[in-house]
Amino acid sequence: MKRIWLLLALCTPLMAQAQGAADLFTGGDAKAGEAKAAVCAACHGPAGVSAVPEWPKLAGQHSAYIAEQLKQYKSGARQNAVMLGQAMNLSEQDMKDLGAYYAAQAASPGVASEASVAVAEKIYRGGVASRGIPACSGCHGPTGTGNAAAKYPRLAGQHAAYTALQLKAYRSGERAAGANGQMMAAVASQLSDEEIEALASYLNGLQ
């Protein structure tokens, strides 16, 4: 009986979203977000699955994380000329609706290279204590699904090229907005190019 009640509790938010209820984390409207996402599809693909590896997949990403990143683009805290132009005219509600829409889409899995696993798995699951690198799984979860409430993004299935670019941006300090950004910048500052490429490939195949 306890298992049945637990299953119902876990499924209720998903059922509510399927019935058109407001997004649990942002209050955004996925249906409204679908219409607003039409222009985003040019880069991020239909339903948020980008075909270009340097552009992120948004399908299955957490709604609050997407809304937060759009705010950072609009304010200039996270810099990207294309995204600044796209975010500039978005209202806070637009950002919430877009987040709700993409969070409701099915995530797209990827494939890791065999060579990346030997390097990346140890870092992802156990960190490197001697260099002050915490386990990535502590924030992003054992299967890379992240933490929606804490705005820790889903990493599983993300394009390896995009993930590598972002880790290098964190490492250089180019991307370090907010408490989470500062934490990632500190972690990435300890990573070598080889480790970044391995982690990016490993995360692409994580599921």
Topology, pairings included?
Blueprint: H1 2-18, H2 30-36, H3 41-44, H4 63-75, H5 81-87, H6 92-103, H7 114-126, H8 137-140, H9 160-172, H10 178-188, H11 193-205
Helix pairs in contact: 2-6, 4-5, 4-6, 7-11, 9-10, 9-11
What does the model show?
Helix 4 packs across helix 5 (81-87). The two termini are 29 Å apart. 55% of the residues lie in helices and 0% in strands. It is an all-alpha fold. The longest helix is centred in the first third of the chain and has 17 residues, at 2-18. The chain is globular, with a radius of gyration of 17 Å. It has 11 helices and no strands.
Summarize the model shown:
The chain is mainly α and 207 residues long. The protein has helices at 2-18, 30-36, 41-44, 63-75, 81-87, 92-103, 114-126, 137-140, 160-172, 178-188, 193-205. The protein is 55% helix and 0% strand.
- Shape estimate: globular
Helical fraction:
55-70%
- Percentage of β-strand residues: under 5%
Count of individual beta strands: 0
SSE succession:
HHHHHHHHHHH
Largest sheet: none
Cα-based radius of gyration, to the nearest Å: 17 Å
Taking all residues together, what is the mean pLDDT? 92
Q: What distance lies between the first and last C-alpha atoms, to the nearest angstrom?
A: 29 Å
**Quaternary assembly:** single chain
Number of helices: 11
